[in-house]
Amino acid sequence: MEQTIKCTINAGRLWRHIEELGRIGRNADGSITRFPFTKEDLAAQTLISRYMEEAGLSVETDAAGNLIGRWTDPGCKNNPPVLTGSHYDTVLNGGRFDGTLGVLGAIEAVQTMKEAGIRPAYPICVIGFKDEEGNRFGYGMIGSKSICGIVSEEGLDSEDQDGVSLRQAMTAYGLQPEQVQTCRIAPVKAMLELHIEQGKVLEKHQKQIGIVDGIAGLVRYRIVIHGESGHAGATPMTERKDPVVAMSKWILKVTQLAKEKPFCVATVGSIQTFPGTCNIIADRVEFTLDLRSIHEQDICEIMQTMETENEWLEQTEGVCVSQHLEQRLSPVLCDMKLKEQLQKICETGEYSYMYLMSGAGHDSMNFKDVCPLGMIFVPSEGGYSHRKEEFTGKADCAAGAQVLMEVLIQQSCT
Ligand code: GLV
Ligand code: MN
Ligand code: MN
């Protein structure tokens, strides 16, 4: 039986938490850089722990550094928990809402439920996931992967730009990478994540709530092209093995292939040339590829075509191309029953809503073989995300947290 809702989340308290957390890692230009296993990470973790304690949750961190606030009512017995949350790391020069809204909105939802005297029959765990963005090590989502039991040894060996491995950074932060299998939570009743949309779809359609149908899959590669160094003035054009030229052709090819498919995007966001100066032909370039689609087939086809492209570049440019896979996530679909519950909540609460796909990746993707998953989106002003202009208004944040709370009540009380 579904419990009738009589409580409203505290929009002012949620907004204050968003503002306070948004001060940690803030750069001079107003953007935020909060990388995992840094002092900014620790400061954020400490603040969020305090919010969790104030909400009446019992707080712990696991071997991967996830922050978990548990609410186990005596009536819960051995029932599987309902999980909710998101990440609290940011990209380089990111914004205030990506991830943090899902963590703080979840805390707000359970705090309101507690204040209203609701007694869940299933435990609720609010999780602040560690390192979703993968900006430092490439691997990404170490927290949610640990909880789902799918961390790989190679993932733990990924290195940041200074050659520090994820394993080493975790250990230096006081965590136990060799124990990540102990983070596994199973069985799980459901995983629910509130997140900003990070695109323009809701704004364009003037809807306050997005019910996510599914999340695009992705691959991330580090591409290395070796050529031959030489003098920029004394080496004729016909005698060069310039990896920068090969890279340019490679990028044009991959972006053109993505353009030809309707739900596919390819991004080369980081490029380095070595030795990296104006009058030396580079001997090596390294760059990243982030390739996404809701159809896994698109990704496979493009990467196959790029193998042929690599051979052609090797023959015509005299270079040597290698591709290193850093991350692969299959596209996932959200649970039908959770989507129906969310729709009913929106209709009853008179929230304008629509269904949409997520182009961005999210921690909840990792739960696809663990439990039913549901995602709620709220609008991103101008579609801006992963930059300092990222903004979602107070009313939209509150609406998202309210919808999250109502679905949590339905999932945890029945
Ligand atoms: C996470 O924000 C991602 O989709 O890269
Ligand atoms: Mn992000
Ligand atoms: Mn995010």
Provide the number of structural domains.
2
Described by the principal axes of the CA atoms, the overall outline is: elongated
Instruction: Give the H and E element order.
Output: HHEEEHEHHHEHEEEHEEEEHEEHEEH
Structural class: alpha+beta
Low-confidence stretches: none
Any idea of the CATH topology of the largest domain? Aminopeptidase
Helix content: 25-40%
Q: Round the Cα radius of gyration to an integer and report it.
A: 23 Å
Number of strands: 16
Structure annotation, total helices:
11
Can you identify the CATH class of the largest domain? Alpha Beta
Distance between the termini: 6 Å
Q: β content, as a range?
A: 15-25%
Q: Mean pLDDT, as a whole number?
A: 97
Concise account of the structure shown:
With 414 residues, the protein is of the alpha+beta class.
Strand and helix layout:
Blueprint: H1 11-21, H2 39-54, E1 58-61, E2 67-71, E3 82-87, H3 100-115, E4 124-129, H4 142-147, H5 153-156, H6 166-172, E5 190-196, H7 201-205, E6 209-215, E7 217-226, E8 230-231, H8 243-259, E9 264-267, E10 271-274, E11 280-281, E12 284-293, H9 296-317, E13 320-329, E14 332-333, H10 336-348, E15 353-358, E16 373-378, H11 394-413
Parallel strand pairs: 3-4, 3-5, 5-16, 6-15
Antiparallel strand pairs: 1-2, 2-4, 6-14, 6-16, 7-12, 7-13, 8-11, 9-12, 10-12
Helix pairs in contact: 1-3, 1-11, 2-3, 3-11, 8-9, 10-11
Bound molecules: glyoxylic acid (GLV) and manganese (II) ion (MN) (2 copies).
Glyoxylic acid binds at residues 133, 360-361.
